[in-house]
Specification:
Shape: globular
Largest sheet: 13 strands, mixed
Oligomer: single chain
Strand order of the largest sheet: 1-2-3-4-5-6-13-7-12-11-10-9-8
Order of helices and strands: EEHHEEEHEHEEHHEEEHEHE
Length: 295
Amino acid sequence: MDTGTDTATDTETGNWHLTHDLDDFLTRAGAFLRSRPALHTVPLTVTETLRTRGRCVYGAGAPEFGLLERDGVVRATFFRTPPHWLNLTALTPGDADTLAAQLAALGRRPPGVNAPCDTAAAFAEAWERHTGVTAALRQRQRLYRLGTLTAPGPLPPGGPRVAVAADRERLVRWHDEFSESVDPGTARDSAEWADARIGSGGITFWESPDGVPVAMAGTGPQVAGQIRVAPVYTPPHLRGRGYAGAVTTEVSRAALAAGAEEVLLFTDLANPTSNSLYQRIGYRPVADFEVYDFT
């Protein structure tokens, strides 16, 4: 599988090492990412998808990676899958400023940043100073980790079913609808996404008693002991009937049965319904993240 090796474009400035070579990045930063699998769930799962599905899975541009190293120890990383948002692990304000200055000097122009709250705010402020663009807060997210799984009350009529090839058209349509309603920072082509999830058995429907899918929930690959639940989607006209809670409980149970040490998910903090639902199921807050647009 093509992982986008391009060592000729590696850049060393200060303590930051920038590369397009996924293998090089994982060799140098993999242990750091795996040391905190919950907080690093996005870079872990995105790089695993790039490794297994190819460098163009999130878009035609070559993925970009970077790591901050001091005294032979990796302290932080970033990745970007153009044309999407820059994703950062936690940085000090000074390191955020150094990275912003370096990327600006290289002519990089990400459309925004996604990172833990303090890091996102520090990088957005530094980016404004170094480039003159305006940074606007787009979304606040909360990362949850599953504690004790608890069904959210009486289950709605129907039951779970793993999606198969015959469901492809519905999966493509629902993924399009889901992607339009959430942060686009790591969105994938819906047809490619559907094919990958069908192949891995990574999507479960909740079906009505007459066999019609009414909601879906998915899980990503298990990496460093963690599995992240995403996406969870119910068409608007079917919401409020308990389908999302039922199908999320089912995929969470399956992730535990598959041996996951941590089961994770993100929510939009602007959506009190989903935040309340996931806590009733047994998910507990880990950390908050912010997404900024650069305009």
